[in-house]
Amino acid sequence: MSVPTPEELLAVARAAARAGAAVLAGRSSTALELTNKGEAGDWVTDFDVAAENAVRGVILEHRTTDAITGEEHGTTRPENPSGYRWSIDPLDGTTNFIRNIVYYATSVAVADADGAWLAGVVDAPALGRTYYASRGGGAWLEQEGIRTRLTGPQPGRKGQILATGFSYDPGVRAEQAEVLGGLMDGFADVRRLGSAALDLCLVADGTHDAYGERGLNEHDFAAGALIAEEAGCWVRRPRLTSPLDGGPEHGHRLESWTCAATLELSGKFPL
């Protein structure tokens, strides 16, 4: 098999994310079957599973020897893996989805054997927005048939907004709340939208000035962080400790921050 370009991988990612988002677009309040994944408020619906199945189906149609990591089905590796691995969050913002709050999306990204992210897509059906990027190809937004290149937030503007999120774990959440006051220094206000993937994209499109959150899973940040990075933002995210098996390692993930902002705001976040 020939070595794919980031643009070729992006085409697959866009088709896969579109398939997952099409499942989410069928949302009906009477069709939500809910179970809890352990932490209070950490819900999974039948749509999460169906959307991941749809995403996996598209990827496997085009990339039969790639590994896939999904939020609902974990990591699957073919017998002779290519070295590329896909990271799927079929429904980022499940609580929003359940309550019909529009900030939810399907997120799809792909990394190479060294853990470098090559392409990523965040498709938000309720917003009518698709954010996407390929390494070296810039970051883009498609909405209502209009394609716009993303260049991140305006440096130094007044009334800067910080976006963040909080863990379902009460202990971690208490620690996050304790540092929030310090994070807010210099910002006019804070937003908590409930979708890390979209928060990162909203830094990329300049809506947020900065985003930072501790303890994200890989599938939460995989696509959105690349989109912010390709929009010219400063980005920090956990390194993959095992690129072909998924990562980062659990303890490292809980202590790590994922952040995106203008370079001038990079010093606002804990190391």
Set out the fold topology.
Blueprint: H1 6-24, E1 34-36, E2 43-45, H2 46-62, E3 67-70, E4 74-76, E5 85-92, H3 94-98, E6 105-111, E7 117-124, E8 129-134, E9 139-143, E10 146-149, E11 161-163, H4 170-183, E12 189-191, H5 196-204, E13 210-214, H6 218-230, E14 234-236, H7 250-255, E15 257-261
Parallel strand pairs: 3-5, 11-12, 11-13
Antiparallel strand pairs: 1-2, 3-4, 5-6, 6-7, 7-8, 8-9, 9-10, 13-15, 14-15
Helix pairs in contact: 1-2, 5-6
Helix content range = 25-40%
Contiguous uncertain segments of 5+ residues: 38-43
DSSP summary, beta strand count: 15
Task: Order the strands across the largest sheet as they lie in space.
Answer: 4-3-5-6-7-8-9-10
What's the pLDDT, averaged over the residues?
89
Cα distance spanning the termini: 40 Å
Given the structure, what is the number of helices? 7
From the alpha carbons, calculate the radius of gyration and give it in angstroms: 17 Å
Strand content: 25-35%
User: What is the chain-wise order of helices and strands?
Assistant: HEEHEEEHEEEEEEHEHEHEHE
CATH architecture of the largest domain: 2-Layer Sandwich
The biggest sheet amounts to: 8 strands, mixed
Shape: globular
Total domain count: 2
The CATH H-level superfamily of the largest domain is Fructose-1,6-Bisphosphatase, subunit A, domain 1
Q: Find the structural class using helix and strand composition.
A: alpha+beta
